[in-house]
């Protein structure tokens, strides 16, 4: 990736140039990031410490929580620091690293959400074969393929972008290094790269979203013959998952399934899937999931009883 260019650093325009708005955004996004870290780490701790949650569904939920923590950390710390910085600068290789990590964990989230939908399909539509289909080795293979697929996607995406030359333009009209804003700075024809980006990012998002919709369609049809209690429990689990899917996939498809054009709305949409969705995921999965809530109560009870023993 040694490309002749005159750029050693890039400058972000950020979400706003107004000092008052930047201070407000600093406090707001610092709070959001703290909630993301605490919420997702709490899910990881709860699932790992409670043997009753050592099932395929919660194995993939742990993967999702880890991905959300890492995914938001690819952009949020730099964005928060820039709100109180006079100059929002990132080095050339810092930009490369940020784009790679952002797309790596973002694509991993897409694949993990898709695997989670398959897990729910198997549990509801194939209950007698579920333990055979989603055995431990199969879960590890599915998770590994998700991470390996994300690695390949991110490498291709980053390589396609930074193999282009950058002459003198270095101001990125965004708050992090994403493909479309960076491609606008390249001093070369980016038509082919734009098409490959759509194929790489846009079609992955759209394809996985269509697979998810198909799996939920099968689930809804299969629930017609179940008891009211079974329908309620299945719809509660799948409803929370589909909410997460919608919040994440719709903005991704809007951003990446189009030619390399940028709109004023892009920054707000990006905030939604880089910060808001990872923050909402723990809330959605805990507030709508009795198993997780009960496990958290047991974890808290163990902590309280341990403190009482230490005092005694």
UniProtKB/TrEMBL annotation:
Cellular compartments per GO CC: plasma membrane
Membrane-topology descriptor: Multi-pass membrane protein
Transmembrane region(s): 23-45, 57-76, 96-118, 138-156, 202-223, 235-257, 269-287
Pfam families reported in the protein's UniProt record: 7tm_4
GO molecular function terms attached to this record: G protein-coupled receptor activity; olfactory receptor activity
Keywords, comma-separated and alphabetical: Cell membrane, G-protein coupled receptor, Membrane, Olfaction, Receptor, Sensory transduction, Transducer, Transmembrane, Transmembrane helix
Main location, first listed in the record: membrane
Cross-referenced InterPro entries: GPCR_Rhodpsn (IPR000276), GPCR_Rhodpsn_7TM (IPR017452), Olfact_rcpt (IPR000725), Olfactory_Receptors (IPR050427)
Domain of life: Eukaryota
Alphabetized SUPFAM superfamilies for the sequence: Family A G protein-coupled receptor-like (SSF81321)
Localisation per UniProt entry: Cell membrane; Membrane
Stretches assigned to the G-protein coupled receptors family 1 profile domain: 39-285
Family to which this protein belongs: Belongs to the G-protein coupled receptor 1 family.
Function: Putative odorant or sperm cell receptor.
Protein name in UniProt: Olfactory receptor
